[in-house]
Amino acid sequence: MPEPKQPEKLIDEKGLRIDGRRLDQLRPLRLEVGLLDKADGSAYIEQGKNKILVAVYGPREAHPKHIAMPERAVIRCRYHMAPFSVDERKSPAPSRREMELSKVIRESLEPVVLTDLYPRTTIDVFIEVLQSDGGSRCAGITAASLALADAGIPMKELVAACAVGKIQGKIALDLSDAEDKYGDADLPVALVPNMGLVTLLQMDGNLTTAEFEQGLSMALEACKTIHAMQRETLKKKYATVKEAAEEREEPEIVA
Ligand code: ADP
């Protein structure tokens, strides 16, 4: 994998990072839902330079039939990086990393989806990373839970995710690709805020117990901020849908 150019320092004398952020600052976040007509639900996320599109199909009849579960829906998830999503062309074939990420993302979403309402069906979640810049599994989870909601799939809550890490010996929120590569540790976290449930917790690198606790609480706070933005994104869409429906219902004025 080609490495991004190593920056001289990850934190400057003023305590700012290479993209000008403070240690506890998220990258700019943009969320959208319902942009694909052909999928049952969809969402798009930009988190810093990450650009990720998610499409959801289902619940629909399970194919092949032998994967069907008699008492619940089966969630299938595919995290995939487009060949043009990184500096050097990535093979479009699924890598071991993509297979692992597909599994952990599915496991982070499963606890909130009311799968027992739809026995013998599948729910397919396609996460397409168009441009990647660190923290893409977390951005993928945030967008995937929005796309599930956009598909009208009953859920207990939305899942929000964000990574935290250690760069130049300091705990920092929402690492970019260079910070991830040249930093000391990376800790992706997914949270269901209103249930207080952590559905993803991984760690790459080493942290002391105190650093882990500081990082985890920083990531959980960031997940709550992201969760509020997810809710706003969904509300905004339904306000637009309601307005359009009301306009259609306006009686015609005949002169
Ligand atoms: P995450 O994106 O969740 O942080 P990783 O920690 O595994 O996942 O990867 C960190 C970053 O490394 C990715 O976001 C991406 O920018 C970069 N990366 C991953 N796979 C490749 C690849 N095949 N080629 C170039 N860069 C890659």
Explain what the structure shows:
This protein has helices at 96-109, 136-150, 177-182, 209-249; strands at residues 29-33, 41-47, 50-61, 74-81, 121-131, 160-167, 170-173, 185-192, 197-201, 204-205. With 255 residues, the protein is of the alpha+beta class. A hairpin with a 7-residue loop joins strand 1 (29-33) and strand 2 (41-47). The longest helix is centred in the C-terminal third of the chain and has 41 residues, at 209-249. The mean pLDDT is 95. Adenosine-5'-diphosphate binds at residues 1, 86, 90, 97, 132-137, 177, 180, 186, 188.
Runs in which pLDDT lies below 50 for 5 or more consecutive residues are: none
Distance N to C terminus: 70 Å
Mean pLDDT: 95
- How many distinct beta strands? 10
In sequence order, what are the helices and strands, one letter per element? Answer: EEEEHEHEEHEEEH
Strands of the largest sheet, in order across it?
1-2-3-5-4
Helical segment count: 4
Quick overview of this protein structure:
The protein is of the alpha+beta class and 255 residues long. The protein has helices spanning 96-109, 136-150, 177-182, 209-249; strands spanning 29-33, 41-47, 50-61, 74-81, 121-131, 160-167, 170-173, 185-192, 197-201, 204-205. It contains four helices and ten strands; from the N terminus they run ββββαβαββαβββα.
Q: Could you list some keywords that capture this structure?
A:
255 residues; 10 strands; binds adenosine-5'-diphosphate; alpha+beta; 5-stranded mixed beta sheet
